[in-house]
């Protein structure tokens, strides 16, 4: 089996692990080895601290998908405080935040410098992992990191490795995105998994027609999104064209790794858009969902905004109206657009914003957006322990 075939097979194994979390360790082990690396994992990153803070975790990093050879190193990393003043985080994460998908060891320190770095010599070399790469991607606007380590005899990641990892990054984003929306590791079997999904889910047959949808998906149907002649259709013409193309590509893909389309947005009148992602159902996934070709996962940004508003209101002591405005601003809208969407005048919005500044001890809109962005994102259900 050639290198590309090994990588492709490992990617398919990771997609199957979405429905069977017990498969994650082996799937990530195979993925790392197919990439000429020793181990790999995923974790959600705090964009302010730059890394996981075990003293104030949103979820335990040890509960994230992780390959077996990474486990002992990670346990010591957290226990002994190696995450503090970590040169890889301090130098690498700003590169990821600037838009780089992949950063490797040689971009973070010279060979001469590495001879003097305690993290490199006393920690990574102690465990036998000299090579390092990090892949950055976002799920629902939240930053995630996938670190990979090379062992002795495997050398360091090079420019060819970077190109290969950049091409795979969209798959990693989709894996995390869909994993976050499944309640996995439970006794429910077959189509029962659909009803246990933490998001609106739609099963498609080989023609791209709706075979089944769960209650959360049915609740989204209405003027802006409906089923017409058995097919999911959007009222907005541009959204509908994009949706039909997206569905056709999803059901035509032979494997999850063969589906490369980015998620699409469905515009709605007077509401935030719906975001649609998809995964072809093959292998273990097909066994779970029967005679279907793809599953659509639909995220209602309006629902997430409502949840965020509740958190913002409770945390910052804002009124419901103030929390609604703050949430809109945090999502990227300017004051005028936010006021129009909420149905208030610009003068009222300015008055509310002044009160928000006072309560949050901020003085500029950028400071408020940063603050609200940190606390206002509704936590997603954690992936099951690997």
Write up what this structure looks like.
With 386 residues, the chain is α+β, with helices and mostly antiparallel strands. The chain has three domains: 3-179, Beta-Lactamase (2-Layer Sandwich); 192-300, Beta-Lactamase (2-Layer Sandwich), CATH 3.30.450; 317-375, Winged helix-like DNA-binding domain superfamily/Winged helix DNA-binding domain (Arc Repressor Mutant, subunit A, Orthogonal Bundle), CATH 1.10.10.10. Helices cover 45% and strands 17% of the residues. The chain has 16 helices and twelve strands. The strands form three sheets. Strands 1, 2, 3, 4 and 5 form a five-stranded antiparallel beta sheet that branches. A five-stranded antiparallel beta sheet has the order 7-6-12-11-10, with helices on both faces. A two-stranded antiparallel ribbon has the order 8-9. The radius of gyration is 22 Å and the shape is flat. The chain starts with a helix and ends in an 11-residue tail after the last helix. The relative contact order is 0.10. Mean pLDDT is 84; it is low at 47-59, 185-190 and 376-386.
């Amino acid at each position: 089996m050639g290198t590309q075939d090994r990588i492709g097979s490992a990617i398919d194994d990771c997609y199957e692990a979405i429905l069977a979390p017990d498969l994650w360790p082996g799937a990530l082990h195979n993925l790392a080895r197919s990439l000429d690396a020793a181990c790999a994992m995923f974790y959600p990153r705090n964009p302010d601290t730059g890394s996981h803070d075990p003293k104030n975790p949103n979820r335990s990093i040890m509960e994230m998908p992780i390959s077996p050879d990474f486990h002992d190193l990670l346990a010591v990393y957290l226990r002994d405080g190696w995450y503090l003043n970590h040169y890889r985080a301090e130098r690498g994460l700003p590169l990821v935040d600037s838009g780089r998908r992949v950063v490797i060891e040689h971009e973070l320190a010279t060979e001469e410098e590495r001879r003097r770095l305690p993290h490199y010599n006393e920690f990574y070399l102690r465990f036998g992992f000299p090579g390092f790469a990090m892949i950055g991607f976002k799920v629902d606007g939240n930053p995630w990191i996938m670190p990979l380590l090379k062992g002795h005899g495997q050398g360091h990641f090079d420019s060819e490795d970077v190109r290969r990892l950049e091409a795979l990054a969209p798959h990693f984003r989709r894996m995390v995105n869909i994993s976050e929306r499944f309640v996995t590791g439970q006794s429910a079997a077959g189509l029962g998994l659909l009803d246990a999904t933490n998001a609106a889910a739609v099963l498609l047959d080989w023609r791209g027609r709706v075979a089944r949808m769960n209650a959360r998906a049915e609740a989204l149907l209405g003027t802006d999104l409906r089923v017409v002649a058995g097919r999911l259709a959007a009222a907005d013409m541009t959204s509908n064209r994009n949706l039909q193309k997206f569905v056709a590509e999803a059901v035509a893909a032979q494997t999850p790794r063969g589906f490369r389309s980015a998620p699409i947005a469905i515009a709605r009148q007077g509401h935030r858009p719906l975001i649609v992602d998809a995964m072809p159902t093959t292998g273990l996934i097909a066994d779970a969902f029967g005679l279907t070709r793809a599953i659509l996962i639909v995220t209602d940004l309006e629902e997430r905004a409502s949840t965020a508003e509740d958190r913002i209101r409770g945390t910052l002591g804002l009124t419901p109206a103030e929390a609604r405005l703050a949430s809109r601003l945090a999502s990227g809208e300017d004051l005028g657009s936010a006021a129009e969407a909420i149905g208030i005048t610009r003068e009222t919005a300015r008055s509310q914003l002044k009160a928000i500044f006072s309560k949050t001890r901020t003085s500029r809109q950028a400071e408020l957006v940063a603050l609200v962005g940190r606390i206002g994102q509704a936590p997603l259900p954690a992936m099951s322990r690997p």
